[in-house]
Amino acid sequence: MSAALRPPRGTRDWMPEEAWLKRSVEDRIRRVFESYGYGEVITPAFEHLELLVAKAGEEVVEQIYNFKDKAGRDLGLRFELTTPIARIVSSRPELPKPIRFYYIAPVWRYEEPQHARLREFWQAGVELIGVEGVEGDAEVVAVLYDALRSAGLKDFRILVNDRRVVEDVLTSAGVSEEKIAAALRALDKLERMGEEFVVGELCKLGLDGDRARKVVDKLAEGFSSFTPSTKRGEAGAKRLSELLEMLEEGYGVRVEVDLSIVRGLGYYTGVVFEAKCKDGSIGSIAGGGRYDDLISSLGGPQLPATGMAIGVERLLEALSAQGELPRYRPAEVTVIPVGAERKVLAAALKVAQELRNNGFRVVVEYSRRSLSKTLERLSKSGVKFAIILGSSELSAGVVTVRDMEAWEEFKVRVEEVVSLIKARVP
Length: 426
Hints:
Number of strands: 16
Shape: elongated
CATH topology of the largest domain: BirA Bifunctional Protein, domain 2
Structural class: alpha+beta
CATH class of the largest domain: Alpha Beta
Number of helices: 17
Strand content: 15-25%
Radius of gyration: 27 Å
Strand order of the largest sheet: 1-5-6-11-10-9-7-8
CATH superfamily of the largest domain: Bira Bifunctional Protein, Domain 2
Number of domains: 2
CATH architecture of the largest domain: 2-Layer Sandwich
């Protein structure tokens, strides 16, 4: 096959079944977002490069697809949606607070394609802007939990942390303030690259081997063993305790503290969290956290904010692994005109239109296959009902309705078709 006929590396085509499954899951997520009062925003695919690199973090900057337009302006494809939304809020100070935005959109990162993560991928997320207290963090985590449950995911856990706790551990180990961001980026690779890699990266930042290993060990010991040595660490620990309490008491949601969760983006300032399958078969399905300085760094007002994003492809992969994907039906009903008479076809088309007007997805069978072969093919396709209409049915003013799952057959008057099918649809 010619290279020009293949999608560019790191992208994919969504065929009808795949696109239907994706949209079905996204619709479930959308309903949860809107149930919490979030409104959808749609932003441009590309932004000014200066905006995208402002607080992204060194590693992500290298992944931005950037280019010059025909007027010589430096632009880049968005790599996530938090920064574009921060731009909107920065440019519209009159927006009433708090702000609840959500999005379901594609983003782009020039990174090595991997399982369930390409260079073009979809995110579904929310941003809660203007709530400073722990109630803001708790709401966003609860939205994530409910969205994953609504999508059908069962065996997952949400891991939470506060960056200030990790910064406390790094400071206590001797990492200087100007190297904290680089140390956090190194720790973000702990799960993917392993302990030895992270120890090596910390040594490059000035720690000796013992101190670097103690950082990793301290994080592994867990929250119950953490004793803050700085005011930032104390504030982070207090926020984590409050978050756990509010999630359980207010939402009935239990999460786990994992001090190795730091998130790679440079704009996070406090609570961070990730959602993962319990069996560890897939990386993070979702992640997010608090970013209180991003909007002001872009020239807007100082506004506290918390957000999260679900990786749609990774969620679909997890749902497939757990056997929880919705069943794809290209159509619920197939109308089969039998014979070549124009009157029969016209009557079949009218039946199909009436069903469509009542909300059903309907296909009219135009092939000249035998009825038995057509029904055999439909039984494998997932179609729920077949409606058979030939010259004899037309003369009698009836149709034959076959329930393809129950394998039952009825002859009903044309005007009764809709009510019959509605009664048999769960």
